[in-house]
Amino acid sequence: MTSLQRREQLIAVGRSLFAAKGFEAVSVEEIAAHAKVSKPIVYEHFGGKEGLYAVIVDREMRALTTTLTEALDNPDIHPRRIVERTALALLTYIEENAEGFQVLVRDSPSTDPSGSFNSLLGDISLRVEDILSDTFKRQKLSVKGVPYYAQMLVGMTVFTGQYWADRPKVSKEQLAAYIVDLAWHGLSRLNSKPQLLFEGARAQREAQREAEREAQRRQRGSQRELPAISCDSADSVIDTVSSTGTDVDDASASNETDAMNGNPAGENITE
């Protein structure tokens, strides 16, 4: 085996081990054992597992960058087509480079403070941000939220792809359709001033106002069911009762007088 072939063999072995176990869990001894070489061979080619890991990450980064750059290369095409291209490009990379993708999305080693994969996602998000800015301006929408929308789109695609890599129960095209459906219909129905409806300070204020309105409605309902009696109404009732009582007493006295004179109450006397 030539030196170049040995180097490629070590890269392939290292990629598989880093993808399966992560950087910290892999040792130089393990790499050498899987490649059926001695430890000095690994050190000779890469200086240690850190050097091997750096080479693997650099290769995967370049492959993914090339794939996504080609998808975003023509910002003048329809925005939905850009979303479709980007989703399909990432899923194609995951499908064809499963181990490489696992290496990228795993935690970076403590010796790599830059966070290479995060840096790559940041660069992609900036490209998407530029495209979204132009689209928002044409639709007369505020560009204030564009950086966040770009991060959402990239993050949604990457993390969904990571989930799919472990559970490939649908085809690449079907998953891309799911991503595009959510992203596109969300973007096509953006509010000019988006707000929370059920949570947050605004929702709490609206709930408080609604509670106050409900209390007022209940109070008005109680007042209609139990009308207050005014002083004038009370006096009128008393006068009516007094007047009625007097008439009754007068009628009773008249009946008693008729009875004493031998005339039954209510009987007419005809001469």
From TrEMBL:
GO terms for molecular function: DNA binding. Residues 235-254 have a biased composition (Low complexity). Transmembrane segments: none annotated. Keywords: DNA-binding, Transcription, Transcription regulation. Residues 207-271 are annotated as: Disordered. PROSITE patterns: HTH_TETR_1 (PS01081), HTH_TETR_2 (PS50977). Residues 4-64 form the HTH tetR-type domain. GO terms for biological process: negative regulation of DNA-templated transcription. Residues 27-46 bind DNA. Residues 207-217 have a biased composition (Basic and acidic residues). This is Transcriptional regulator. It comes from Bifidobacterium reuteri DSM 23975.
